[in-house]
Structure formats: structure tokens, C-alpha cells
Amino acid sequence: MRLTPLFLDKVRVRFAPSPTGHLHIGGLRTAFFNYLFAKKHGGDFILRIEDTDQARYVDGAQEKIYDALHAYRLQPDEGPREGGSFGPYEQSKRLHHYESAARQLVETGQAYRCFCTEERLGLLRKDAAKRGDVPKYDRKCMHLDGETAKSMEDNGEKFVIRFKLDKQVVNFQDEVFGSVSQCIDESDPVLLKSDGFPTYHLANVVDDRHMEISHVIRGMEWLSSTGKHQILYKSFNWTPPKFVHLSLIMRTATKKLSKRDKDAFVAYYGDELGILPEAVLNLMIRNGSGIQNFDADHFYSLHEMIDRFDLSLLGRRNLLLDSDVLEKYARMAFQSSDFEAVLYPLIIDRLKRDCPGVQIPDKNYTRTVVEFLKSKEEKFGFLSSLTRGDFSWFFSRPESSDFLRISYPTFDLKAILNELLALKTLKPESLAGVAKRHRLQMPKLMGIIRVSLIGTKNGPPISELFEFFGLEECQKRMELMASLLQKS
After folding, report:
1. Among 362, 378, 395, residue at a domain's last position
2. Does the structure show a pLDDT above 60 at 363?
3. Angle (nearest 5°) at CA 292 between 291 and 296
4. Nearest to 8 by CA among 214, 204, 241
5. Mean pLDDT of the chain, nearest integer
């Protein structure tokens, strides 16, 4: 793609989330593509917090945004923590910019003060509803002369600043969706509220201009607002940035991802499932989304994604949040991850969080666990299964004999375990003798041993458990189960 940036051939892009709760998976995708584009072209990736909607502000949400970007290695070059030459990077600290811009439009006759009360606006909406019309402001205050409006302001009357938005057709170019034509036929929008806070449209345009944003890369849901933004840029006599709208993330081919779905939020993938971050990023770029010569069977590192990223290859096809594909990438991520730098710290952090009473294992034991999983369990990819899933037995021993007794109610379990404990080896011929003496089929005996060792009937082949634990640990676990049986 041949770049024609707005400012001095410098790519500057921004991720501009609102701190209203947990980061949505669509927000992560937006940040990711902004980051890829910036790093590909030696540009700047900026984090801007759009916190002007004070009613929806959630304490701690900004920290969650930073945590997510850190976990996925999408470090901003500029932002509230990083600083920079274009700050502040929180909109609530930039109110003077928006007031100045709004008053500039008032002075040029493109906006006006509106003193109408909420009660009057409510009556207008009700009247429109009765007629079956789309509610529109009737422009009563637009006809106030400037002197009268200034006098009312000086007298302390509350007002908002509205933009004069006449019906018009706006044409613009989007880097993904091509030539776009929008008919703008709406009520005069509020630019500046009576409390001095801007609405989204004004703040967005003013900040992108002041921060010298060259490309606006955002979700497709904002495409419908771009026509209004083009009009605002024109009203200030500013050249707009390039616009890049990303396709939707879908649950199925016909159903959108809902914010009620737990997997709609970034925290679910790391905190709940324990999926490594680059697995989620690989999910985002599949189907060749911006990646040259995309190979669905290759697991891309973040460095490779940056190196191969091409904005012109972004398609209009929606991204399907496919759980099977995600599991595939989760397995590939685990297999390719370094133990020291990635897996060990993540596993220990998860143990401390999910299993506060468990004894933290030493590094060598944890390394043995990882090597076992990489060599024996090709489908392993979710770290959560190490603390509260099928592989929690690596770091804990059974705490109850209930499942063993329920699963094998007709056998003398105490006698069987005592005989197993007397063995010097757990080779098949030794076990066959125990099975024969207790009139057990070998699969039944293996089941009793498995439940005694790991507390479940599921898991690796029993021979792999023997190999991993060794005779001493197997005996300790069977002794524990015998003790639990005795207590029961």
C-alpha cells in the first residue's frame, strides 16, 4: 500500500477506548491493528482515553485497559502513563480544547447556543412520536441573534452548543470499504454540553486533529458516524485523516457477538481460560486479514505479524469467533512458548490466584510438567486446566475418597491399595497379579489406580502417569487415598 499520511509522512494512529468496564474483544482487535500498522511503518501508537461520558465512567477501567495492552504486548508510544508531546491523553483533561473549537464554530456561524430545557426537548420528542416522525430539534435557538444569546449566557442561563447540520450527501473514501456515500439528515447535534463536556463527535475530531492522527483505524460500527465527522472537518477547514473501518466480529455467520457473552471480553481469554495472548492475536488475523501470504496452519509471532502486515489486504469479510480455531491456536501457542520467559511466570501466577492453599512447586518440577504436556498432550492449550480442570492433579493430590468409592462400590478398595503399596514395581506383570488375586479385570484395576493417583477417570494413559510421577510419588498418592478411605 502506498502511504500518503497527513503529517510529515509520519504514521500516527490511536486506540481510543472509553473506561466503562472490561475491554471488549472488538476493542482489543482495534488496538491490535492500530499497533500493527504503526510498527510496520515506524509510526506512533497512541492510547487516548475517551472519558467524557461521566455517567458511564467505571473506576479502575483505565487500569484494565492498560493491563490488557500489556498482556498482549501492545505497548503505547504515547498515553496517560507514557506522556508525550500531544497530551493530556484523557479527554476529561482536555475540555479547554473542545470549548475553544465549539466557540470557533459559533463565531463563524456554523454552530449556535441552545437554551432549550430538557422539558421542552422532551415535548418535541413526544410530538414527533405521535406523528410517527424521527425526533428532530426545531432550531428555535438558532434564530437568536448573537447579542441576545451572549447576554443570556452572561446571565448564567444554561445552554449547549449545537452544530448546524443541514441535509446533505457526503462522499468519502474508506481504505477497506472503498467509496462511501451517506445521506446526512439528522437533528442539529450537540457539540458541547451544558457542563462543559463535549459529545463524542466533537471530541473525536478535535483530538484527532490536535494529536496529528494520520489514520483512524476503528470498528465498522463507527462507519455511520464518519459522514458527520467529514462535515465537522470541513467546517474547521481541516484535512481529515485516512479512515479504515474493520469488519465486525460475529458469533455465527448471521449473529453478532453480544456484550452479554462472557467471551466478548478480553479478560475471559486470559483470566478464565488461560489462553496465551498470541493465540488470540492469531485468531484475529486469520482468513488473511492484512497478512501477506497468510498460512492458516502457521502460528505467527507478533514480530512476524508486524513484518507481514499490509493494510491494503484488510478485507470486508466479518471475523467469526470460532472456538475450534481458537483452541487450535491455543495449542500452537503453548507448544511454541518459551518456558522461562512465558510459561513459568504465567503458571505460578495462576496457581497463586486460583489455588491459594497449594504449595508452589519449584521451577524444575514445573518445567517437567510443561515438558510432559508438550510431548504427551498435543491438545493442551488452556492454562486454566492446570488449576481447575483436567490437569489440576499436577499440582495437587486427591482430597477425598468419595469419587473412588462411588465409582467402585463393590470392591475391597482398602485391601487393593494396601497390596499395591507393597509392590516394588508398577510394571504390568506385578499389577496383573494384584488383579488376579482380587478377581479384577485389568481395566478396573487401572481405573482404581488412576482415581487414586489423580482423582479422575480422565487423563493420560496410566503408563504415562507412572512414568511422570515415579514409584515414590505414586506410593505417596496411594497412601493418601488409603488414609482417606480409612477416615470415610
Report:
1. 395
2. yes
3. 65
4. 214
5. 92
Residue 348 resides in a domain = yes
Tally the domains of the chain.
2
Continuous segment of H or E residues that includes residue 60: none
Please write down the long-range contacts of 229-233, taking CB distance under 8 Å and 24 or more positions apart.
229/201, 229/204, 229/205, 230/170, 230/172, 231/165, 231/168, 231/170, 231/184, 232/163, 232/201, 232/202, 232/205, 233/205, 233/209
Range of weakest confidence among 2-11, 86-95, 96-105, 233-242: 2-11
75, 302 contact by CB (below 8 A): no
- Of 54 and 232, the structure prediction assigns the larger pLDDT to 232
426 occurs within a structural domain: yes
Classify residue 436: in a domain, yes or no. yes
Task: Give, for 481, the enclosing helix (H) or strand (E).
Answer: helix 462-487
Shared-domain flag, residues 375 and 453: no
The answer to whether 289 and 319 have CB atoms below 8 angstroms apart is yes
> What does the DSSP 8-state code read for residue 263?
G
**Are 76 and 47 contacting, i.e. CB atoms less than 8 angstroms apart?**
yes
Instruction: Give the domain CATH number at 471.
Output: 1.10.10.350
Total residue length of the chain: 488
- Residue 19 makes CB contacts below 8 A (sequence gap 6+) with 49, 51, 57, 58, 61, 62, 65
Asked if 311 and 175 count as a contact pair (C-beta separation under 8 A), the reply is: yes
**Residue 407: which domain range?**
397-487
pTM of the model: 0.90
Reported as a single tens digit per residue, the pLDDT across 56-104 is 888 899 999 999 999 999 999 999 999 999 999 999 999 999 999 999 9
Task: Give the integer Cα–Cα distance in Å for 227 and 233.
Answer: 10
**pLDDT tens digits for range 245-294:** 999 988 888 888 877 888 899 999 999 999 999 999 999 998 667 999 99
